[in-house]
Amino acid sequence: MHEIPENLVSEFIAEQRLPPAYGEQAQSWFPPLAWRLRGIAERYDKPVRIGVSGAQGSGKSTLAAFLSRLLANWGVRTAALSLDDFYLTRARRRELAESTHPLLATRGVPGTHDVDLLADVLDELGHSGKNASVTIPVFDKSRDDRGESKRREHGRPDLILLEGWFVGLAPQPPDALEAPVNLLESGEDAAGAWRRFVNERLAEYHDRIFSGLDYLAFLQAPDFASVYRWRGLQERKLREQAGPEAGQIMSEAQLRRFISHFERLTRHALHTLPERADWLYVLDEEQRIVARVDRIPAE
């Protein structure tokens, strides 16, 4: 297995504003996955689609970014996409909230993304020529809206990494939707219209996007309480980075309500995805990886 250049890890930690301890974790746990992905990419004659999934704050975005950096060092061209960058604009979510359910004004759940755009981008990346470029949207969380800036992936990638908090998740059975899971659902979705809509849209994501994934990696949080705490740390980091321009970054009360939108599907993912994932990383309460399961047969 190729060694990781020491400067690659240190530069990544500095760019991502990660604690120094992340370097030891990255060196210990992620090179085997990256090396397997390199071998998989060599065997395919098309871009391989890899899902990177995990609850909010679990480190999935950081993992996808680190894998991209490491694979590039080994000559593997990687396009890393975040489900978050395909959120509907604030204006479109406002229209959806007025026409379907008020809770859909809040970004995050299935139904608040532009699935057509995501499908188009994945298709373009999969069929792009060697010298082509594909435009990727960028969502600005500090403004809660899609930004004007775009980034471009040049040429056809060997691997496409799609990361998101419910990537790979299948819809719940209808009877699981009947009882509310928290005060948000009991108080603002007593009849269940919102959660039924979200579940129906999740089925669409699964059929159009997730079923096309070749492999799935999942970061397993110990419980939902840890997810809430991690997401709070993530929001504080975002606030520090934004500084005076914090704008739409959430307060503690807003964050608690915000995360309540995701509790149902987060619990569903923690219950179902560990058994479905090709690569499983088990986390403790401090976000440290304590175990790994690799279900892909050795080459």
Keywords, separated by commas or semicolons:
two-stranded antiparallel ribbon, globular, Rossmann fold, alpha/beta, 6-stranded mixed beta sheet, 11 helices, 299 residues
Describe the protein's architecture and organization:
With 299 residues, the protein is of the alpha/beta class. The protein has a single domain, classed as P-loop containing nucleotide triphosphate hydrolases (Rossmann fold, 3-Layer(aba) Sandwich). It has 11 helices and 8 strands. The protein has helices at residues 6-16, 21-29, 31-43, 60-73, 90-99, 115-127, 183-188, 193-208, 224-242, 252-260, 263-276, and strands at 48-54, 78-82, 133-140, 145-154, 159-164, 215-220, 279-283, 289-294. The chain has a 6-stranded mixed β-sheet with strand order 2-5-1-6-7-8, sandwiched between helices. It has a two-stranded antiparallel sheet with strand order 3-4. A hairpin with a 4-residue loop joins strand 3 and strand 4 (145-154). Helix 9 (224-242) packs across helix 10. The protein is globular. The protein starts with 5 loop residues before the first helix and ends in a 5-residue tail after the last strand. The mean pLDDT is 90.
- Beta-strand share of residues: 15-25%
Sheet with most strands: 6 strands, mixed
Mean pLDDT: 90
Give the class-level CATH name: Alpha Beta
H and E order: HHHEHEHHEEEHHEHHHEE
How are the strands of the largest sheet arranged?
2-5-1-6-7-8
Rg (C-alpha, Å):
19 Å
Number of domains: 1
**What is the global morphology?**
globular
How far apart lie the N and C ends? 13 Å
- Indicate the structural class: alpha/beta
- Please estimate the helix content: 40-55%
How many helical elements?
11
Number of distinct beta strands: 8
Give me the oligomer status.
Answer: single chain
| Low-confidence regions | none
